[in-house]
Amino acid sequence: AQSVTQPDIHITVSEGASLELRCNYSYGATPYLFWYVQSPGQGLQLLLKYFSGDTLVQGIKGFEAEFKRSQSSFNLRKPSVHWSDAAEYFCAVGRFNDYKLSFGAGTTVTVRA
Amino acid sequence: GAVVSQHPSWVICKSGTSVKIECRSLDFQATTMFWYRQFPKQSLMLMATSNEGSKATYEQGVEKDKFLINHASLTLSTLTVTSAHPEDSSFYICSARPTSGEQYFGPGTRLTVT
Predict the structure, then answer these.
(1) How deeply is A83 buried, as exposed, middle or buried, from its count of CB atoms within 10 A (0-12, 13-18, 19+)?
(2) Which member of A70, A86, A109, A113 has the greatest number of CB atoms within 10 A?
(3) Chain segment B52-82, per-residue pLDDT in tens
(4) What is the DSSP string of A14-76?
(5) Nearest-CB residue to A100 (from B6, B43, B46)
């Protein structure tokens, strides 16, 4: 069975500073990896995904993530955060055969002025 | 493209009644739809997977008689919470997946049972 760990429950970052959210996964085969963002009371928006190929993935809103197989990690980064980036971020791993997703517990990002 | 809608976005019902939530893929045909439940400040937990024209597959611990899922067409799946109780209050999110590709998520439905 696949699983995802997001070690950081809450991160506070200053506007304009860089942001990195950690994600570690466990899956026996090649994983499909995703990062989603959720604003309060809203559904999920896909930031980026990794299926194969280049291990550095570019997403929307200036986010990028790097897949490191040796570390079973898929960390999300943004060089300079904006106040609008304050939200809940979920990492997810999908199964190859049916795309069933398992989500991490989420990381809440607070942006201070 | 790849828009998924849910209706209603927010519903309040009395304990003991049933409530139906619809999930629609607006611009693609969804071979598979997924239903998730999310408690406040927590992650999404997969409840069930439904394929068009067949019975839903429920995750361990999810009561199939309480959470009835129907996937009658390639663009519509419904979740009916039967005999709802306050502990069923939650945020329910659906997602839809075409034949190939990733899941697309709906905006969610907030259910409050009084």
Answers:
(1) exposed
(2) A109
(3) 888 899 999 999 999 999 988 999 999 999 9
(4) ETTS-EEE--EEE-SSPPEEEEEEE-TT--EEEEEEE-SS-SEEE-GGG-EEEEEGGGTEEEE
(5) B46
Q: What's phi and psi for A60, nearest 5 deg?
A: -85, 165
Token digits for A38?
């959720």
Are A42 and B108 an interchain contact pair (Cβ–Cβ within 8 Å)?
yes
Q: Of A78, A79, A95, A97, nearest to A37 (Cα)?
A: A78
Of A44, A49, A104, the CB nearest to B105: A44
Residue B3 sits at the chain A interface (C-beta within 8 Å): no
Task: Please indicate whether, in this complex, the C-beta atoms of A103 and B106 are within 8 angstroms of each other.
Answer: no
Phi, psi for residue A33 in degrees, rounded to 5: -120, 140
How confident is the model over A90-102, as pLDDT tens digits? 999 988 777 789 9
B1 pLDDT more than 80: no
Q: Are B99 and B75 in contact (CB under 8 A)?
A: no
Please tell me which residue of chain A has the smallest CA distance to B92: A43
Residues 6+ apart with CB under 8 A from B63: none
The pLDDT tens digits for B10-28 are 999 999 999 999 999 999 9
Please write the tens of the pLDDT for every residue from A50-85.
988 889 999 999 999 999 999 999 999 999 999 999
SS3 B17: coil
Nearest Cα to Cα of residue B34 among A101, A18, A93, A44 = A101
